[in-house]
Amino acid sequence: MKNPNANSDLIARKYMDSLVIEERVLGAVRPSSKVIFLGKEFDTPIMAGALSHLKNGMAPYAEGARLAGAVACIGMGDNKTLGECIDTGADVIKIIKPYADREEIFSRLQYAREHGALAVGLDGGHAIKEESPEFDTIVGCPMKLPTLEEMKEYISFAGLPFFIKDILSVRDAVLAKEIGAAGVIVGHHHNLMRWATPPVYLMKEIRKAVGDDFILIADGGIEDGFDAFKALAMGADMVCVGRALMPPYIKEGAQGVANTIRTMNDELLSMMFRTASADVRNIDPTVIHEGWWL
Ligand SMILES: Cc1cc2nc3c(=O)[nH]c(=O)nc-3n(C[C@H](O)[C@H](O)[C@H](O)COP(=O)(O)O)c2cc1C
To answer: What is the pTM of this model?
Structure first.
């Protein structure tokens, strides 16, 4: 990559920083961040994002989300690792890689269903190499972009709510809904695609196209509770935080993850209070303005 501007993380950061929020304090009531998600109540819409290969293992990461009353997404890994995460008592969404060997996908879907995962998903976009038109190999495992028929097969085999991750268009979100997904995780997998539209930029349009009965999760570049507020106001039901949880996780393990999610949730709540947003499902999108002068 020769052009340093071809960086979707930077593009998303610039967009997020261009969004400003108006204040609506008159008559505002102390807000609640509790959310019902997939039929369960959580303390926060901020989820631990689908990370993998963390130095201290994945179970304390999931445990950190549990301590904060949050959902834990878990990325690439074997069934044993998923089992250890579920055993912490965390509500886990297992995001499966688009393995070329379909049995790798079926075995993980089956394990997730039989061992009490909250939901499953697949990060389809990671099948394609970043800068050449071939399928990728990740940690020695060949990937393949599932066909729509294969995706439908995974969704119906799962027997759990199914999320397609790394979705970044109205077209794909609508297709995902049509083939039976419970929702999509809107993002670009931290710059896997160059010049990607910022996930939050697309959120309003996607929400309008899919309606309210389809779950939208914002992923990518959410670094604090103010970013989370913006994503939720633009139409997301939940948000994922990935890299921002890594330094506290490495330093303090599960407590680091929990404390960081709690701090972000306090920031989110303060912004909800200031905008008269009584709960997460009732943030008026018109409080957000594009600061063209920034
Ligand atoms: C160390 C690391 C491992 C990751 N592993 C996975 C994975 O296995 N599966 C997946 O879907 N995404 C994975 N991701 C991508 C994240 O889920 C997320 O999409 C991305 O980091 C953008 O979010 P962020 O800006 O909050 O980090 C990984 C990211 C990092 C930094």
So the answer is: 0.98
